[in-house]
Amino acid sequence: MFGVINVNKPQGVTSRDVVNQIQRLVKPLKAGHAGTLDPLATGVLLVCIGDATRLVTLLQERTKTYTAEFTLGQVSDTDDSTGQITQSPQPSVLPDVEAITSGLRQLTGVVTQVPPAYSAIHVQGQRAYDLARSGAEFTLEGREVVVHSIDLLRWEWPLLQLKITCGSGTYIRSIARDLGRLLGCGALMSRLERTAIGEFEVDNAVLPEALTKSTLGSFVIPATQITAPLPRYCCTDQDCRDIVCGRALVIDSAKYIDAMPPSAGTLVALADEGYRQLYGLAVVTEKGTLQPKNVFLRSAPTSAGADPL
Question: Which end of the chain has fewer CB atoms surrounding its CB within 10 Å, N or C?
Answer without folding.
Answer: C
